[in-house]
Design brief:
By secondary structure, the chain is α+β, with helices and mostly antiparallel strands. The chain is built from 3 helices and 5 strands; from the N terminus they run αβααββββ. The chain has a 5-stranded mixed β-sheet. Helix 1 packs across helix 2 and helix 1 packs across helix 3. The protein starts with 7 loop residues before the first helix and ends with a strand.
Length: about 120
């Protein structure tokens, strides 16, 4: 097992992604419960105004960049979630697995502020 060394800010962002994006689906089950708890601790230790900023930016990103772009029917799925380290990009990705699709979402706190991106793949 390997782990990516990311800063606490990016860990908190990963947890915000998990909470916010996961709420768009019918049911979300996390397969990485230990990592989920670790990220939750980091998130809870983050200043409240920073949490609010992360949540607002994540909701805005999902509403403007993901919803309406990926097929609407995926939001009715029951999904599984994993936190997957991307060692090449030095980030932690939140991966949502549906029946025949996968949605990877990640974020980082950079000099430009909190930035998000995603990759959706379908197995149709």
């Amino acid at each position: 097992m390997y782990d990516v060394k990311v800063n606490n800010s990016n860990d908190a962002i990963a947890y915000a992604i998990y909470m916010i994006v996961g709420s768009y689906f019918k049911k979300t089950v996390c397969l990485s419960t230990i990592k989920e708890r670790q990220l939750k601790v980091v998130y809870c230790e983050t200043k409240r105004d920073t949490q609010i900023k992360m949540e607002e930016r994540c909701i805005n990103y999902v509403d403007t960049r993901i919803v309406g772009v990926i097929p609407d029917e995926v939001f009715g799925d029951m999904i599984e979630v994993k936190f997957v380290p991307n060692t090449k990009e030095n980030r932690l990705e939140v991966v949502f697995y549906g029946f025949d699709w996968k949605l990877r979402v990640w974020g980082e706190n950079s000099s430009k502020g909190i930035m998000f991106d995603y990759k959706f793949t379908s197995q149709d």
